[in-house]
Amino acid sequence: MAYPNKEVMIETIMEYYNLGWESGDMGELYNDLDDIYRNGYKGLENETLDFLEGEYDNAKKFLENTYGK
Fold this sequence. Notes:
Blueprint: H1 6-22, H2 26-39, H3 49-67
Helix pairs in contact: 1-3
């Protein structure tokens, strides 16, 4: 699968995070907050390409299944 550039992946992931939070999916938010407090915050811009591609895949599935995007 060909992935878009890093900025497009990050924008899609952020949309996924925001919509998930708004719809009450707090589990991922709690996991992220726990990770920040335990390991520090490095931001999506500093994540590995493998991590971004995995999160991008999750985001696309969520957005397609929930919003038909």
